[in-house]
Amino acid sequence: MTANIRDVAERAGVSVGTVSNVLNHREKVSPDAVRRVREAIDALGYVRNDAARQLRVGRSSTVGLVVLDVRNPFFTDLARGAESEAARHGLSVILGNSDEDVQREAGYLDLFEEQRVRGILISPYREVGPHLRRLRERGTPTVLVDRRNEDEQFSSVSVDDELGGWLAADHLITTGRRRILFTGGPFDIRQIIDRRAGAQRAVDGADGVSFETVPTPAASVADGRATGEEIAARAAEERPDAVFAANDLIAMGVLQGLARHGIRVPEEIAIIGFDDIDFAAAAVVPLSSVRQPSQLMGETALRILLSEIADPDSDAQQVVFEPELIVRASTAPAA
Amino acid sequence: MARVGIREVAAHAGVAVGTVSHYLNHPDKVSAEKADRIRAAIETLGFVPSNAGRQLRLGISTVIGYIAPDVSNPYFAEIAESVERRASDFGVSVFLANSHRSKEREDAYLRVFEQHQVRGLIVSSHLPIEERLAAVRSRGTPSVLVGQAARSHDQASVSLDDVDGGRQAMEHLLSVGCRRIAFVGGPLGIPQVADRLAGASEAVSASGEVVTLEVINQPDRTIRGGRDVAAALLTRPADQRPNGVFAVNDLLALGMLQTLVAAGVRVPEELALVGYDDTEFSEASIIPLSTVRGRHEGFGVAVVDLLFDVMEDKATTSQHRVFKPELVARASTLGFVPR
Q: Would residue A76 count as lying in a domain?
């Protein structure tokens, strides 16, 4: 049987109004009454009904975070950053995994709104749509993470993906590679388009470098493995001498796919990924990558969200971090 | 901008507030013509029915919560994904929360989900949690404990036989010829760690061999934690180091592997290493990692189905499901050279 506010009042020997005052931290309650109410709450296991309270107060102490893929450590590291910053402000972060699906993304946005979350952090799939705009117009502060919004109506925290793509491809070219293959997808994701565009720019600026793209349906280890298998199935002279994968999960999959067929990395094919997740350094061949400051991005996004909650009319802020090239064995120059 | 309420919708549609309410809860009881006007008003004004309000009236939500100790660990992310996939078959969404192995955070999320009136909870924890879940259950939110077998009959759970898993890991190290073995993981008080160690110890006793089993208590069960343990081992003279290591999860094992290989220790020739969990990264690690596979295709399905049984109060006697783990032998142990 659930204890209600009347049970708490009765046990504490105070009025229902006094319990309510204690719960809402009003100052006019005597310390003795506060103590008695607290004890009654503990003894009865009373939980304040947030649904009812939210109807009155309007907002919960929760922030919603929608990520593209919960299995990508980049996003869980970002979530960790947001969570530790939220905890410092007495807020909780609830995570929804859109799994790169428009319907699921919309579903989470609706749920978060219905739950009256204080604000939303989201790494949107595809472009920022009317759904997200309406949500914000109706009063839920929203900050984009890992993604810059073209018209800058939303605040955002991102990494310069185009520059990151350029760094990766430029590194492959300066270590002597001439046949570069980009693999990743889906191409509805801005980050992937930008990383590829940066690589294309590096290739265009160099002489005699070819560039091909092998799209993948998603951005997982399994997708990378499929690309690796496809490369392995080609005649040796048709293979690239370097692969730039849109993220580290794909890169690790490519590595596995090539290794299964005895193709040597980096001697025959160099591989570079993106994100620099913890596992990159522990890969079968330690993986070169382009580092994003994932935890810092999460913390920063949460701080911007808090400032928008405090002042809904503040101007949108765009924070863009610089990516950093991390060189490991998987791109070592051929001896 | 002020939030649009049910009153504004009613005024815009030219109907009574009660009619809008009827429309929201029992659309079939409202005439088609009024329903059209209300729908148009809702669309124009951007009205969002408050789930909080609706839940108060209907007492039902379409959300379940999953609290995990560390979603950064691919093991839990993989469970989360399989849980989501199954939940979506039932038209239910999953909210994830990360407790960061802290009891305080765990309590906070239990409270948050209870206050949001989720229909049910899935909880992975390394802490004693059954009493807290019993309290939450008594207030109306059922749960399934994942990863540790519940002691109470009333607490549904889906777990792995970690004693058996620990035994298999140790038997494997013994079978390749390791005799100076270290168990790495902690704190030893948490059930998953204690059970794996118990299984490992049983295997040592049952072998009848002369074996030293050193327990290295490393409560930080992350890649970083593994690097630290390996760095400490490297300060010892080579003949004082273990020649077989059973790490209580793959993150620890992968961290150790990184540091050992970087320092020139040959794995598995000088030191054989076995982990636990078989995450997606274990096979692709610098030396493919031998491990104990806990992951099971049917795991997420079993968890969600059990939760639905419990929520609908039709859980039968089998409230506890225990999966059997399985040893996966790879290069990090095969090729050890006994000397």
A: yes
